[in-house]
Amino acid sequence: MDNCLFCRIVAGEIPSTKVYEDEYCYAFRDINPQAPTHVLVVPKQHVANIGEANQLSNEALRACIEAIAKIAAQEGLTGGYRVISNCGPDACQSVPHLHFHILGGRQMADQMA
Ligand code: DGP
Description:
By secondary structure, the protein is an alpha+beta fold. The chain has helices spanning 5-10, 58-74, and strands at 18-21, 25-29, 37-43, 81-84, 100-104. It has a single domain, classed as HIT family, subunit A (2-Layer Sandwich), CATH 3.30.428.10. It is built from two helices and five strands. A five-stranded antiparallel β-sheet has the order 1-2-3-5-4, covered by helices on one side. A hairpin with a 7-residue loop joins strand 2 (25-29) and strand 3 (37-43). 2'-deoxyguanosine-5'-monophosphate (DGP) binds at residues 5, 14, 16, 28-32, 40, 86, 92-95.
């Protein structure tokens, strides 16, 4: 998608701090970190949110999910981490390209929202 921010980041048209990449997904540091480690994992193929995950191949979906644990290990998140994927307006999704937030490096609040 030409005008999608995260598609443009994946394409290298907008700079980002890469954390991980494979054939199917790309991960980079969030511009507005909410925790000492805050990484976004996105599929390279454009889908709007988790509600459209069935449009991804099994390989792409699996790569995104498996990337999360790889990145957590790479980032040294031995104490655990939180994974969030906001979907739609009620969840305050601001970028309509599926992404998984990985948050770690501090104790998370026990309330999720
Ligand atoms: P969400 O609200 O779940 O759609 O999260 C979108 C996240 O994307 C938000 O935490 C901030 C991040 N973000 C927005 N624009 C940019 C950008 O240009 N670069 C990077 N690295 N992150 C961005």
